[in-house]
Please model this.
Amino acid sequence: MKITIIAGARPNFMKIAPIIRAVKHAQKSGKDISYRLVHTGQHYDRKLSGSFFDELNIPDPDVNLEVGSGSHAQQTAQIMVKFEKELLENPCDYVLVVGDVNSTMACAIVAKKLHINVIHVEAGLRSFDLRMPEEINRMVTDAITDLFFTTTEQAGQHLQNAGIPQEKIKFVGNTMIDTLIDNLDRLRKPEVFEQHQLEAGNYWVMTLHRPSNVDEAQKLLALLNLISENAGDKKIIFPVHPRTAKTLAALGDLPTNILFTDPLPYLEFMYLVKHAAAVITDSGGIQEETTYLGIPCITLRENTERPETVDVGSNVLCGFDPEKMERAFDQLNSDNWKKGEIPELWDGKTAERIINSIMNYELPKTNN
Ligand code: UD1
Model:
């Protein structure tokens, strides 16, 4: 069995690392399975791509399509044109896509149109917010996927509600958490720790990169000011995504208790998160990682496709509502945050379950 695995943007890399390891493990135990790794090149800066390959021991991609940045239509189209050629030259039984970035959707469409079975890891997540490009990517990908792997039972329910037969949906857990568990004893203290006399529990970590939060300069500044004013004596470490950096560059004075850094490598970023008093974010994956670690997380979004992080975990949604944010900051500052638990099957063995399941799955005779 040949599987082509797709990775394109930063959050994909943590998700494919354990899957590739599980494929290699199956190979070693004599199973007939091989993989080809395609990097679309959606992310290309070392800090958003190469460093993750090195730190997570992901093998070099067999090919990099080098699509780079562009508008959504440009980027998606570029990926499709280049991946179609790649797939015609290197046919396979399955194309495996992860997550919800443009590369996920673009490669799923190309595969399906070439009658190749599509596997979606992290299927069925829904924010029901079509202003998010990721929600469109999720819906389109799931509409043409053949085998669905989900992180929660609820994600499977969304798929069933859309008419997907239950036997195609496998609740397996979370490959991003596989990577976190694998690396917990390798996390590395970043330089900023010593530079600013950080100690476990005396700082917050912040990440913001959603267009809705960072593309408008005055909105971003208002957010930063509000967070800064509520931080008390805590410093706020803010590794800045290139998209956010563009907006920040146009702003004048920024709050001095916010320490801006370049995007951090995985092992350093997770070290910061693990020892933080709290995390403020608009990321998807970080809501899951803080839930696993039991770190208070304030999510600056109106909705989440990962409701288990709120219902079960340590996450609270504040949207852009100053009142909700201040309430959350009060709870944080008075050590009154909910405890949170780890969602079912987030146990570090998800990739193994995925590969076992693929090996035992009977391919449909007609691919439609
Ligand atoms: C993408 C994903 C988003 C994910 C995020 C994680 C989509 C629609 N969005 O958003 O779901 O949460 O990655 O980072 O797929 N840039 C660089 N260097 C790079 C890549 C990008 O400087 O290596 C800059 C470019 O100016 C680019 C901008 O960042 O135009 C946005 O990059 P893009 O890949 O379009 O989306 P992200 O905002 O990174």
